[in-house]
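Quick start: what a row looks like.
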Amino acid sequence: MTLYDRIQQDMKEAMKARDSLKTNTLRSVISSVKMYLASSEEARSGELTDEIVIGLVRKEAKKREESIEAYRKAERNDLVQSESEELEILKSYLPEEMSPDEIRAVALKTIEDLKANNPSDLGKVMRELMVRLKGRVDGKLVNKIVRELLESR
């Protein structure tokens, strides 16, 4: 069963259980997938992979994180709670994220492989590293770690 099939099945079960929060959250993911399929030339030619769906779920989760931050600044705790619950639902469909120590180890190896010595090599290292870590990390955290490692050389 693909991740997309699992999401669709879970939405059906949430509808039967009258769980409106989960139903609406999963509907937003399904909507994102359908929009991707309709607008992407790449999607029309191939099949929908779990990697693509994970990327779309991650985008939905990022939207929730940004909303939570905005609602906290506006002191709207009721909306923070709702968005947090949606975020938890979305996170259940994402793979386990790597710890900063694990990222640092892979980053060091990548820096050594590319013989990067200074902060100007950041782009080159990030391109390679994000390919290696795709779907398992937050890009901002990786960028911060790589900057620290390159500046200390």
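That is the whole record. Residues 50-73 form the longest helix (24 residues). The radius of gyration is 18 Å.
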